[in-house]
Amino acid sequence: MIQPPCVLTFKGSYHLFYQYNPKGAVWGNIVWAHSISMDLVNWEALEPAIFPSEPFDIKGTWSRSATVFPDGNPVIYYTGVDAKGQQVQNYAIPADITDKNLRKWVKPKEGNPMVVADKEINGSAFRDPTTAWQANGYWNILVGSRKGSTGVAYLFKSKDKKTWTKTARPLHEVPNTGMWECPDFFPVSTSHEKGLDFSELGKDVKRVLKVSLDVTRFEYYTIGTYFPDQDKYGPDKDQVDGWDGLKLDYGNFYASKSFYDPVKFRRVVWGWAKELDSKEEDVKKGWAGIMPIPRTVRLDPSGKQLLAWPIDDIETLKGNKADVEVTFSIPNLEKAEPFDPSWKDPRDLCYKKKSRVQGAIGPFGLLTFATEKLEEFNPVFFRIFKAQNNKHVVLMCSDAEPSTVMTNVYKPMFGGFVDVDLSDRKLLLWSLIDNSVVESFAAGGKTCITSRVYDIQR
Ligand code: DQQ
Predict the structure, then answer these.
(1) For 276-305, what is each residue's pLDDT tens digit?
(2) What is the spatial distance between Cα 18 and Cα 63, in angstroms, rounded to a whole number?
């Protein structure tokens, strides 16, 4: 069983670390597995890098981040579950910095555990430290948590990277969002398309805060401003800061983490798609959970959302004919059915309108994994509505329900709105299809949906 990825770039190669159960295809016995790649596509598995061994992580070595400090030395921050079952933040460093594969990692006795829950923090809900960034002479990390039902990103600061102090208030918190796992806090440029490293500040720089919601198992992000002098983050005025917020992916995509790639000057986000198969099947096949294709992210020119697009390195895989690119032309937008403003949740709307019920414009899209007689197919499709302001609302759905006749799998519908200008009456869709996963990108990466699909033919 694998869980979310974390990437470290070191001396021109990519190191992938991820939660892994070496004893089976179910959650448990988590170690940090380690693979290495020169291109983010072809990977070689190495020995696990981190596993429970010390009082401060004996009951678990969980998620994660990697930081390369300006002196070139990498550090991993991870959550350990200590002997008392409390979640604490630890660090590990390479045993031999001259080994470019960084095979062995050590957890120094000095300074571990690095951050423990104080009286204010719930030590059973305190995990997933971020990559460190620098501001005003301090190093900063976030740790995800909750206070009752309020989701929280605690901020810790350090001058020497050894002693970390919690700031007076969290960097950000939002009532009724529950536990925030895997926070990610990164800068994006408003003036160019290249990625920025974590410590970039400045007037052409906005900040993204992404959190993974343990309650819904979806993620959301906001775009806003980071105020390092006040240790505060504020989402922009028009951003939805809660369950209905923007998503990097509206489908089976969780616990994502981004990294800055100094090789190609880009910001790459990598998520995790869990298995929706039955546990018995997972055990039988011997694995569960996948990493979808890593995605480059940047700010949309509107400044209101991100664009996510599969990394260009996958061009090398194109010979496998596992992708479909379509441009849909919409001849007559006039006949679109009216959009009811009470339809707030795109996923609910996909369920309500279903994939087989004909509307005025839509459903139209792709039938992936279709059997010859259409007993099974996974539709990725759109519907277009007309809103009161005369603008159009584009709904994108991916429906796993008809994708299999098997009954012992979870077959969800996923949906997201696509904020796209339809004045040229065109809508673009790119789907990457691979065995049991369909990753679809609408309108240049404005809306993405990852689905797991299981068919009788596999
Ligand atoms: N799962 C881990 C956490 C992380 C979550 C525990 C993601 O570290 O927050 O397995 O699903």
Answers:
(1) 988 899 999 999 999 999 999 999 999 999
(2) 8
